[in-house]
Amino acid sequence: MMEACNLVTVHRVTGAISVPRIIRVRSHSPSTETVYVRLLLGQTPKQWEEAAEALAVALRAERVGVERVRPQVIALVVQRSEPFTEVIVPPEIPADSEVVDLSRVYLGETEHGTDWCAPLIGQHWLIAGATGSGKNSIVWMVLRACAPLVRDGLVRLHVVNPKGTELNALRPVCYRYAESDGIVEVIQGFWETMQARKRVLAEQGRRTFVMSRETPLDLLVVDELGAVTGYGDRSLTRGAQAALPLILSQARALGGSVIGALQEPTKDVIPQRDLFSLRVCLRVTSAAHVDMVLGEDMRRRGALADEIPNVPESAGIGFVVRERSRTPVRVRAAYCDDSDVAELVRVAGWPVSELARTGQG
Ligand SMILES: Nc1ncnc2c1ncn2[C@@H]1O[C@H](COP(=O)(O)OP(=O)(O)OP(=O)(O)O)[C@@H](O)[C@H]1O
Ligand SMILES: [Mg+2]
Q1: What is the number of the ligand closest to the CA of 262?
Q2: What pLDDT is attached to residue 115?
């Protein structure tokens, strides 16, 4: 096989064929394998990268990624199959708040055929992916779970939507919402809410947050986190840059969660990466983005997020890292179409004015 892919060397004089040695094979998931190979003298990782497509054909794999491990050793990340060939339909919105379990929010499925769930209370989520990769579907899924809680005043939505698209459907059910002007106010307002919460918890003599009408879960959704903290307008980024790290580091214990979407991992966001307990890497445009989002070695262990085809059929597919074993898992978010979104807005529909009237603002 290596011979067919031009990855062997032939001795000029003796004609002896040298074949690269396979050091070990690891499988971290049902759909991928990592094959560690020692390069032959004179070979470069680049040669293997160029042969990746031929290798995939030869191995009858969907695709092969090449990772540099150390000088002379590379890892071939072989994705055997695509476990997700169909769109996943979201479950019904629960009718009652009582049955919603925010310690286990259903987001979609894993490649193991199990539910992909994540805790929301006291957690922050980072969703990275190129344009059209399906970042919104994760936001919609968590909001579907939260819809009855929003209606009942147990969850408040703070939404920052710099692009002004899609998420504007949420405007009627948001506690605070901003597109361009007012973004800093929403973020700083969120931080002030958290500080006020700290005082309330102290007065109540509580050390931990319990979700209630008096102390609702405040959820800050920031679409385009990069625009807000990184390459956006100066005055905007400075205000947000000051408040966001404080929110990320302190809000957890106070009933504040942040969900940030990101097209490209930037230097400004990545230092705060570890403050996000759930990080999702959907299709990205560069191999380097994968480890920036998921953590060191995750691409080598199988998270070929940069190799997810840029086609609508692949939207919502990505990787998360299973914390205990530090292995990447391929996941697919369920897809909320326009009517699913309209339904969640209808269920959540508690007008902002009512919140103000009852003095919960
Ligand atoms: N989970 C999913 N399953 C199947 N298709 C999906 C899924 N999520 C999104 N799509 C499809 O992909 C399209 C783009 O999704 P989405 O708007 O969420 O992208 P995005 O990552 O937010 O992009 P942008 O950065 O441009 O805002 C959707 O209009 C839909 O057709
Ligand atoms: Mg989007």
Answers
A1: 1
A2: 96
